[in-house]
Each structure stands twice: as structure tokens, then as C-alpha cells.
Amino acid sequence: DADVTQTPRNRITKTGKRIMLECSQTKGHDRMYWYRQDPGLGLRLIYYSFDVKDINKGEISDGYSVSRQAQAKFSLSLESAIPNQTALYFCATSDSVNEQFFGPGTRLTVL
Amino acid sequence: SQQGEEDPQALSIQEGENATMNCSYKTSINNLQWYRQNSGRGLVHLILIRSNEREKHSGRLRVTLDTSKKSSSLLITASRAADTASYFCATDLFPIMYSGGGADGLTFGKGTHLIIQP
Question: Is A42 within 8 Å of B88 (Cβ atoms)?
Fold first, then answer.
């Protein structure tokens, strides 16, 4: 089984809808991250969490919120989706040695 | 925010040749990492080099780091068709806040798209 899983893998939604992307990990890592990737670009950090009680904004947090329900679960929400949030979203985890382990990604399209 | 920039943006070589990609960044770092991404998939960590290291090897990979020039290079020797992918360098997003080396978020360049011709 994959160490970092994301659901859904693909989602098409309409402008104004609320969307939740979920991430689960079995690696036992405290640190979890959400990134987005736009075509032809690298990843940009949205939010990160060092433990259940610690949530931090990344580079591009506007329009997004997160919830760390447990050590193994980190959810990303778009309260009111807009077309420029169409992107590939990745969850990642890490321990204290900096290497990050990425999930397979969620392809989100906002019409 | 600081961001690595890879060069070239695209590289096409014959199988068996060596591939070299470069990365430049803007501010001080704790470490620099290289990741590979196959089309539309998650990133896979390749190698991490710390700011006090100058060169590191892992299998067919060789990474160098020149902190005076704020640059790094990734060399893939004896390339294979399976090496076709995008390669990204990544540095600490908050190197000053987490100077102790904790795993904070990363900032990525736009990547080098490598194509290995059979």
C-alpha cells in the first residue's frame, strides 16, 4: 500500500463550490504539507503542519484552509472554488531529516 | 520568496549519454534537494545535499553545491530511457526560521524536462 494517499485523484467542480481534498499517511511522520502545481511550473506551498496543534501558512494560502484531524490526516479545503485554483495538488510528509514523501496528486478542475 | 531556477528548461539526449542540469537560488539555504517527477505523478526524492557539503553521490547521480555562487548541479551518468522525467531542485522556504534543520516547507524551481532518446 502507498505510504501517502490522496482522495479524490481527480475532481471537476464548478465555481463557488466547496471542495475538500484529503490526505492520509502511514509513515508516522509529524510534518505534513499541501502544495499546488500549475502546468510547467514547480510546486508552491499552500499550508504545512508540524503536528496536530500546529498549522502554518505557506506561500499561497489565500482561498484555502486546512484541518489536521490526526497525525495521519491532513485535509485541504477550498471554501469557494474559483477557476484559477485549477491545478494539481500534492500532499507530502516528512520527518526531521528534510526529505519529503509525496502523494500521487489530485487533479482539480474548477469550471 | 526564494526559489530555485533550473537550467536548461528542457534537455534531450541519447541513451547512454550523461545529463547535467543546473539550479540557481537566491538566498542562504540549509540544504538543497533534487526531486524527479514522472508525467503527472508525485515527486520522488533523489538526493539531499547540505550547505556544508560540496559534492554527493547516489548511484548514477552526482550532485554538487557551490554556496558562493548559489548554484547546484545534478549529473545523471549513463542515462536510460527510464530517466525521462522532470527534475526539480528545492530549497528551504524558511531557512532563517528553521535554521536548526527542521523539515519546513520547500520552494521549487520550474524544473528541467529531460528526455532520453532510445
Answer: yes
